[in-house]
Amino acid sequence: MTNIKMGLTIEEAAEMSGIGRNTMRKLVDWGKLPVLKVGRKTIIRRDALENFMTVNQGRNLLNQADVREVR
Q1: What region holds the Helix-turn-helix domain (predicted)?
Q2: Could you tell me the residue ranges of all domains in the chain?
């Protein structure tokens, strides 16, 4: 049985999605991507990341106004 993580760190989410770490941090800071905070650690749910990528397909993730928020 393979153990698939439901929650990803910013670094893991960036690597998995191909989005840069700094851009991933911006998306979190802008409130576009929902996260769980565990102390200083930020966790992004895998399903939220997949939904975010679907909703924002074809959009410029470096332009805050162009990014659609995911809840």
Answers
A1: 8-53
A2: 7-66
- Cα angle 45, 67, 42; round to 5: 30
- The amino acid at residue 54 is T
Measure Cα distances from 21 to 2, 15, 48, 69 in Å: 26, 8, 17, 18
Q: What is the DSSP string of the chain?
A: -----SEEEHHHHHHHHT--HHHHHHHHHTT-S--EEETTEEEEEHHHHHHHHHHTTTS-TT-GGGPPP--
Q: Which residue has the tokens 């851009």?
A: 23
Note the pLDDT of residue 1: 61
Cα(66)–Cα(8) distance, integer angstroms: 24
Specify the pTM. Answer: 0.88
